[in-house]
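Revision sheet: structure tokens.
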Amino acid sequence: MASFYWEQFIYRPSEGPGVDTALVETGRPTGARVEIRLPRGVVGGTYKISAPLIRPSRLTTKNNGGVGKHLSDGWCLNFAVGCSHACPFCYVDEIHKRFGRSRYGEAVQERWGDYLLIPQNLDEAIERTPWARWAGKEAMMSSTHDPYLSTLAAGARRILEHALPAGVEFCLQTRSYLVTKDLDLLARYPGQIRLQVSIATMNRDLARVIEPRVPPPEARVEILRRARDVGLNVGVILAPIFPPNRLRPDAMEDLRLMAQVLEDIEPDHVYGESLHVRGQNLKLLEAALGERVRMTPGFDRGIAKVFYRELRASGLKGTWWYES
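Predicted:
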């Protein structure tokens, strides 16, 4: 068995190394407590979330004041603080550390990937959200965490069970194989779902370092394949694309491999993005890689050309998100 954490966790949850157990309140009327398993070293906790769960988001078209990433109609649905995937390139940590300490406490001062707070009153917030208000509108789930972390997957399903019958549409963004457990539900609403995964590299050595608790790249390709088989609109974000490094010297060949594995899936949309330096992510990345990461405007423009060239060679179309 490969050494990725996710495989040990999913298939041997009672034995998998690196797993601690935490007990948290579910927020249900009975006050029942359930066992939540977190990676070792991750600080768990709860917070009170407010309704409605759908909030305005700037991940939308430039015409609507956003950054032009076309990941929603200007709405998002986030229901956790932190993310135990622990990807050092993520920009979200800076947001929590700058604005979240007064609300969420000292947990957000932990290293990114080592804190995850879940809502103690999620069921109440689900019931109080007027889902029909967003009928026909697309929300991104989620923009600050993976909705299918092992500790969040059950909550994600409860949200979808309320929102989808009310007509809400979702760009469902995940790196977790656990989403495949909900394909039965999602397949009942094919016109309301685009299931999207991110793949930063096909190189397992690099993936282990930059996505330490994420399913390996080929497993994420399998998510897309299974979603396509049940009739869902699927997409992929090839990001963040790293400059050459010791673990993966040839960035162009890596992009070629990513495009080739997507040929038979034919995603409805493909986006690409190079590594963007935000907050402390470059410092975390260089510590993880053990070498300097050299990001230049020239790399962003050059790798964008490779992105378009390799997609064309595989019969695909896509959009590159240039660094602003």
